[in-house]
Amino acid sequence: MESFITIKPSNEKLNDYIESYYFHKSDSINSVSKIIFFPNTKNALTIYKNAEFSFNKSHIKIERIINKSSAGYVTLYGGIQKKHIISEINTPFDKIGIIFKPLGINYFLSDKLENILSKNEDYKFSHFNNKIEDCLDKVYKTDDLQNRIQFLENFLISVYNKNFHDETIVKAINIIENSPSKLKIIEIANELKISEKTLNRKFKSHLNCTPKHYQKVFLFRKVLEDYISRNGKITLTDLTYKNFYYDQSDLIKSFKTFTNKNPLKLFKELKDLGNNIFWIK
Fold this sequence. Notes:
This protein is of the alpha+beta class. It folds into two domains: 2-158; 167-280, Arc Repressor Mutant, subunit A, CATH 1.10.10. It is built from ten helices and eleven strands. The chain has helices at 113-118, 133-139, 145-158, 167-178, 185-192, 196-207, 211-229, 236-242, 248-259, 263-269; strands at residues 2-7, 18-26, 32-37, 43-49, 51-56, 59-64, 73-78, 85-90, 93-100, 271-272, 278-280. Strands 5-6-8-3-11-10 form a six-stranded mixed β-sheet, with no helix packed on it. Strands 1-2-9-4-7 form a five-stranded antiparallel β-sheet, with no helix packed on it. A hairpin with a 2-residue loop joins strand 5 (51-56) and strand 6 (59-64). The radius of gyration is 19 Å and the shape is globular.
């Protein structure tokens, strides 16, 4: 049996930074759960217990370790990647995810996100190291989801960095996500009264991507969300112009870049798991 549950934060303070938590569990024995994730403007930490991780190009494998005495936790970071990622997980597993709002994870780090990621191999995220292990020991000792969330939130509050705030990049994201038209990056920089180089540097430091790529991923996700919210009752033409693509060819090109699929084919296979989490199984 496999379950996937998403829950919003219970702590009001954390609502500003965290989109949701998810709990993904399978009790099956010796099978493989295959999932395809797509680029997102939100970033996430995914935690596995008693597992080993390997990565090859866009393919992640999570292997269950039978000898639990030699195993610990594996934490992976999912950011604003360039293409889809295929994940294969050996069952049984009990996986936990923390999905942050675009800049959210920065409020819990002691260094710039760019610097932290440069010290990690591939998708591994070891910044919290031993700090989070006591929390995870408590989380994995209970199946009660509210208790699990309480332990996770206690940890997050303990590492909260009140000194992080970059009003310029907050405004830049707001412009990208709420503009009535698709702006050029230089136009966004001009509106913020900074150079395009400075804007690029800020995005790289705190989101590990360029503002141009952020804009592309945001529009791609908007198409997915618009299609799901309308229960598929919207044409490709409407999706194209509603989300500022030049024409249908431009939209299709974007989808093939991010997913290797035509949008109409992808829509038929897409599964909505709630809280803007989409994947193909």
